[in-house]
Specification:
By secondary structure, the chain is of the alpha+beta class. The chain has a single domain (3-122), classed as Roll (Nuclear Transport Factor 2, Chain: A), CATH 3.10.450.50. It has helices at 3-21, 24-29, 53-66, and strands at residues 31-38, 49-51, 71-80, 83-93, 99-111, 114-122. Strand 3 and strand 4 (83-93) form a beta hairpin. The N and C termini lie far apart (49 Å).
Length: 132
């Protein structure tokens, strides 16, 4: 594995640790200023496209605010040249108490050791009922 591949894997690990701390600044430290994020859902075939560090950070922080217990359990990261994948399980509690738990994957592009594109895909699973 090249030094750059190792650096890119470390970036993925650091970014997902920051996601789980709900630390928007640390998440964005692993991304380029012109990052493009294609969310798992949205009005277009690719989902909702968000461009630029400020808007991408705001989208991530919106998720942290909407789901105060949100987490991504990473099950695997891999890097292939300037591309990477992260497999994860998304868990969160909705405001009505229902639970969300679904597998997902990010397809990532790198420029140097930073993420320049992130395209999220998540299983479409109905929320689990709130605990009584």
């Amino acid at each position: 594995m090249s030094d750059l591949d190792t650096a890119r894997l470390k970036t993925l690990e650091a970014v997902f640790q920051a996601f789980n701390r709900h630390d928007g600044a640390a998440v964005m430290a692993g991304m380029t200023d012109d990052v493009v994020f294609d969310a798992a859902a949205g009005p277009e075939a690719r989902g909702r496209r968000i461009s630029g560090a400020a808007d991408v950070r705001a989208a991530f922080e919106g998720t942290f605010a909407m789901f105060p217990d949100v987490s991504w359990e990473c099950t695997r990261h891999a890097v292939f040249g300037d591309r990477g994948i992260s497999e994860w399980i998304f868990r969160a509690t909705a405001k009505d108490g229902s639970k969300i738990e679904a597998e997902g994957v990010d397809l990532l592009g790198f420029r140097g050791d930073k993420i320049c594109t992130k395209s999220a895909f998540r299983k479409d699973r109905p929320p689990l009922p709130a605990a009584k």
